[in-house]
Every structure is written in structure tokens, then in C-alpha cells.
Design brief:
2 domains, alpha+beta
Amino acid sequence: MTSRILRASAVFPVLLAALLPAAGAQAQSVVYRCVDKEGRVLYTDTNAGNCKVVDSIISGAISAPPASSRPPAATMRQGAGRATPTAASPASFPRVDNATQRARDDDRREILNEELRAEEKKLADLKRDFNNGEPERQGNEKNYAKYQERVANMRDDIGRAEKNIEAIKREIANIR
């Protein structure tokens, strides 16, 4: 049996799964992780001395990785008669006192209000230029198709500005 050697990489499990159908005739195989004299990591099916068993392949099936001992990413908190998911934060996660958080929220609200005012001004200017669907023709619009294209672009810009205003208002409403 010839030795299949693969270079170590982040895609080793994918490569191993891709090679399994080619090695399907084998009933049982062992994969070894070897380190050569230059420090390069090699994966092979033959033990070349100081190699360690990585995974045992039986009838083309790869064993599952061991179960993680980490706690789940989200826990359930009981409150007011219903369970609500809360994100678990590690003990080393920095905490912010309430006054600091309120100041940050106030800054965020003020920034969003400034953006809202700017977007509302932009919308008012667009609507004024749009002139209820009949903006003034410009000198370079002798061709009516160019004029229609500009009117369509103006209509799209107005729709975009209206959606931006709605999104900013939703963001402001979400601030505590």
C-alpha cells in the first residue's frame, strides 16, 4: 500500500473526506500526524517513527470530534413567566456602569438625530427638484429619453431617502 501524504492545513478534514471515496476499498485505516526534521507537519497512513494517531477510519466513516465542555453560547433566563434567551458573556468581558451606558446612548441618539435631520433636508430638496414628477428640463436633455432617465433616477433617490429616514427612525426607537 502506498503512503498518502498531505501537508498540514486548515482544510485537512475536508481533504480527508474528499480522499475517503478513493480509499473506499480499505476496510480500516489509521491516519498519523508526523513532524519531520524541518518541523513540517505531515499526515500519512503509515507510521514513520515518531508519529501520533490522529483519527481512525473504519469502513470510510470518520469518528466524530469529542464533545465540547464549553457552556452553550446562550442561556435561558426565567422572567415574568416566560423564558427569554440571553447572551452569555465571559467573566473577562468588560462591564460598563449605567451612567456611562446612558451617556453612550445619548451620544448615539444625538448622532442619529443629526443624520435624520440631514436625510429629511435631502428628501425635501429632492422633492422640490422633482416638482411632482415634472422637473425642469436641463440644456443637455434635448433627447426626451435622457430627461425620462433623470426623472426615474430622481424618483429612485426619493424612495431611497424615504427608506433611510424610516431606518433611522427605527434605530432611534431601539435605543434604550
